[in-house]
Write a structure and sequence with these properties.
By secondary structure, the chain is an alpha+beta fold. Among the domains are: 22-272, Beta-galactosidase, Chain A, domain 5; 359-420 and 429-466, no CATH class; 583-667, Sandwich (Immunoglobulin-like); 684-751, Immunoglobulin-like (Sandwich), CATH 2.60.40. The strands form 9 sheets. Strands 7, 8, 9, 10, 13, 14, 16, 17, 20 and 21 form a 10-stranded antiparallel beta sheet that branches. Strand 23 (324-327), helix 5 and strand 24 form a beta-alpha-beta unit.
């Protein structure tokens, strides 16, 4: 009897004090379970535990506090419907020991998405000082992927000093990643993708450890990352002060294809801050830093402009809206004012837009006594560390983006460029503007805050007057520029192309945040034609296409001849019009580039194969890996050579040594009676923007016929002409046949 009384006493005591329970919220495939006592959470996707015992942490440097130390834990739920999806918002809050600070860890659980979001907010009736917040932190082991070829992706903070993206096998030591990271199975493509989607305040570091083939043993996604090697910082991350301090919003996602996961991450970033609008087409053109560099003169620049007009634009190398950008890089100050206005005028007369270069946050002369437009000295506007020392990188002092003198300097120079008529600007060494330091504006605590101030100021001055391209820049923030150099300087060599494509392979998704990526200048001088083809291909499959050789009257004749051949391949140009950055077919372990990249437009798949070695590369054109349907007949056309076959299943392809091949793969037209004929890349092309088939014969065409793929003639022109208007024709595959005044025939198959 006494035993029964004891049991009743224990039960009544439990009822009176309450028993800790787990609160579970389910939405779609997601489940988040929070411990009522500690506030620690388990995150599950489709029955798979992704993060076990997730516990937020915050503080200053190593003096941090964990969520489980809080008291008065409260858990609240409410319906969620925001820009990212619909579902349930789960807020877990508690108070610190002094009862002055409330910490709220919120999970945004979407029922119709492959991701959830989370963030942490601290509020207090006294001023907070925080420089570290980790919304995601766990040391509990989970089986994150199925066993197999599992890799960790490390993403660098910027593209300075020829840094590379790196993948490493599970169980190895993984390099720190910044803003975003992924764990993925290279066979199934299944992937776990995490990253910060807001970039207003913090630099975010991601640390992950793994073991065996399939297990994640710890994860930390922490705002406040700053180091010499990782973010180029001498000072610790800035300390954010105020009665309210919030973390970045963090995405946690699980995807059938990690590549779609990276794109989803980028799309969320662009949902927070919309991409900077650009009304024009993807830029194509030239920049002086490829070969001429510091020797640039007005005559050379005009020569290049004329060469493009006479030799490249005339064979179809131009943007989809018929423009070419001719850009001056560093040493544009070799020109006087009249040189600038004359150069811009020459470009416009040639149907081109002139480009210019500047470094808004760099004092190259380290000129302390120099006077800025507002009357302040250079030294007044320098960014300094916590000990008052000027901050330098690459031998140059950083200007503080928040200082009135820096902004006056920016305003004067940009307005001068606009007044001269420049319509494209490359802004370089942008990393100087995002360094941690002591800023003039005391409401700016971090490098990211300061960078946003400076870039927003630049954006306001430029408006829609110039295309903005960033170089030596952080990945984020991304919404104040149209494009970003995807890697550091690259020139003509195979190794330069491979280095660039390492960045394309693992950050192609950045053109969901910027309008375009930039693969740097395509240089041909000093390399064989095969290496030139690799370099051209690397640019075509990355983003904007900017050539860099000395196309002056005195320039290398071989480079000019090859530019005509390679830039004049209109099928490659047409591909560039239709595509953005290609993504890898498969990743490879290490920090090199994979060999194969792909992109799909409607029913057409493009496959680029690049061989960085002196041996032939044999590989399978694998229908399954490319998403093609075995048994369906596909036309497989290699765009550099015009070679064409019909295939219905996987077969072996060979990429010649030190060379590139680009395959256009599309379903074979049913019932077609027109023979597939070689493409004459020098004499005819389809201009999708104008809706015309254009010829480039030395003499006018006197007869032109356009046939539907079934054989019916759908357009005829007699008499001298250089183009056939096909805008009225429906979408489809057509054959053009023409005869010029010299009796030469032209045959060309095109897809509208």
């Amino acid at each position: 009897m006494s035993r029964n009384l004891l049991i009743l006493f224990v039960l009544s005591l439990a009822a009176s004090v309450g028993v800790a329970q787990d609160v579970e919220v389910n939405a779609g495939k997601w489940s988040v379970t929070v411990n009522e006592t500690s506030g620690i959470a388990d995150i599950v996707y489709d029955g798979k535990v992704l993060i076990n015992n997730n516990e937020a942490e915050w503080g200053v440097e190593d003096d941090r506090q964990a969520f489980s130390t809080l008291s008065d834990i409260k858990i609240e739920q409410q319906p969620l419907n925001d820009a990212f999806g619909s579902g349930t918002m789960l807020a877990v809050s508690g108070t610190a020991e002094n009862a002055r600070t409330t910490v709220t860890h919120t999970y945004y659980i979407y029922s119709n998405r492959d991701y959830i979001l989370t963030d942490v907010k601290l509020t207090s009736n006294s001023e907070l000082a925080i420089n570290k917040i980790a919304p995601v932190r766990s040391s509990s082991t989970t089986q994150i992927l199925d066993a197999g070829s599992n890799l960790h992706l490390s993403v660098p903070f910027d593209n300075d000093e020829w840094v590379r993206y790196e993948t490493s096998k599970f169980g190895r030591t993984h390099r720190s990643s910044y803003e975003v990271s992924a764990l993925f199975n290279n066979d199934s493509r299944q992937g776990f993708v995490v990253g910060s989607i807001t970039h207003d305040m913090w630099k975010t570091g991601i640390e992950i450890t793994t073991k065996a083939e399939d297990k994640m043993t710890s994860i930390s996604i922490c705002n406040g990352a700053a180091s010499k090697a990782g973010t180029r910082d001498d000072d610790p991350h800035g300390t954010v002060r105020g009665n309210e301090v919030s973390s970045s919003k963090i995405m946690i996602g699980y995807f059938a294809d990690w590549r779609r996961g990276m794109e989803t991450y980028a799309d969320l970033c662009a949902t927070v801050h919309l991409r900077l609008p650009f009304a024009g087409a993807k830029p194509m053109g030239w920049n002086s830093w490829g070969v001429i560099q510091e020797k640039i003169t007005r005559k050379q620049a005009v020569d290049v402009s004329d060469f493009f007009a006479d030799s490249l634009q005339s064979v179809g190398f131009h943007t989809e809206d018929n423009v070419v950008y001719i850009g001056l890089d560093s040493y544009w100050d070799n020109f006087n004012i009249r040189d600038h206005t004359a150069f811009v005028r020459n470009c416009r007369e040639n149907g081109q837009k002139a480009g210019i270069y500047w470094t808004p946050f760099v004092d190259w002369g380290n000129w302390a006594d120099g006077t800025l437009p507002d009357g302040s000295k250079h030294a007044d506007a320098w960014l300094r560390d916590s000990n008052g020392n000027p901050l330098k990188r690459t031998g140059a002092t950083a200007f503080d983006p928040t200082h009135p003198g820096t902004q006056a300097r920016i305003k004067r120079q940009l307005e001068q460029f606009i007044d001269w008529g420049y319509e494209y600007i490359k802004l370089d060494f942008m990393i100087h503007g995002i360094l941690e330091g002591v800023h003039y504006d005391k409401n700016v605590y971090t490098g990211v805050q300061a960078y946003n101030v400076g870039m927003n100021y630049i954006k306001e001055i430029i408006g829609d007057k110039m295309f903005i391209n960033l170089s030596i820049a952080p990945l984020f923030p991304a919404h104040q520029a149209h494009s970003r150099r995807i890697a550091c300087d690259a020139y003509a060599s195979l190794s330069n192309s491979e280095y660039t494509l390492n960045s394309t392979a693992y950050s192609w998704w950045l053109d969901h945040c910027y309008t375009y990526n930039d693969a740097d200048n395509v240089v041909m001088k000093g390399e064989i034609e095969q290496a030139n083809r690799v370099r051209f291909t690397s640019s075509y499959i990355t983003g904007i296409v900017i050539l860099g050789d000395e196309f002056t009257d005195a320039g290398d004749a071989g480079a000019k001849e090859r530019a005509h051949l390679l830039a004049g391949n209109n099928e490659m140009v047409q591909m560039a019009y239709q595509t953005k950055a290609f993504y890898p077919v498969d990743a490879i372990e290490g920090n090199n580039s994979p060999n194969f990249f792909m992109y799909t437009v409607a029913d057409t798949t493009y496959l680029a194969g690049l061989n960085f070695t002196g041996k032939r590369l044999k590989a399978n054109l694998d229908f399954d890996r490319l998403g093609l349907t075995t048994g369906t007949e596909y036309v497989v056309r290699e765009l550099w050579t015009g070679d064409e076959v019909v295939a219905s299943e996987t077969y072996e392809i060979i990429i010649p040594r030190s060379d590139a091949a680009v395959y256009k793969i599309y379903p074979k037209p049913i019932g077609g009676s027109v023979d597939i004929l070689p493409y004459d890349a020098t004499r005819c092309y389809y201009d999708a923007y104008m809706g015309e088939v254009r010829t480039k014969s030395v003499s006018h065409m006197i007869e032109s016929y356009v046939y539907a793929i079934g054989g019916a003639c759908v357009a005829t022109i007699q008499g001298a002409h250089d183009a056939v208007d096909v805008k009225a024709l429906p979408t489809g595959v057509y054959l053009y046949r023409g005869l010029d005044a010299n009796g030469n025939s032209v045959t060309y198959k095109f897809t509208k």
